[in-house]
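Thread: quick sanity check before group meeting

JM: Hey all, I'm pulling together slides for Thursday and realized we never actually wrote out the predicted structure for the chain we discussed last week. Dropping the sequence here so it's in one place. If anyone has concerns about the input, flag it before I start.
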Amino acid sequence: SDKQQEQQSYEDLLGKLNDGIKSLESGELTLDQSIALYKQCMEMIAKCNEFLDKAEIVISDISNPS
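JM (edit): ok, ran it. Output follows.
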């Protein structure tokens, strides 16, 4: 699952994260389902932040060439 998540794009992760949030907000999940989905969402947020950190480095390198 980790390897599959690494191959996902930022946009894919963001879409899945939005779906997860909608499911959590729906109130239709059991407590156990909510906890599991919350954990998955937190992992997706961390991965999205990694994508953004990498993008920031690339943009910084472009903006400030050595």
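AS: nice. The chain is about 85% helix and 0% strand. The chain has a mean pLDDT of 90.
JM: adding both to the slides.
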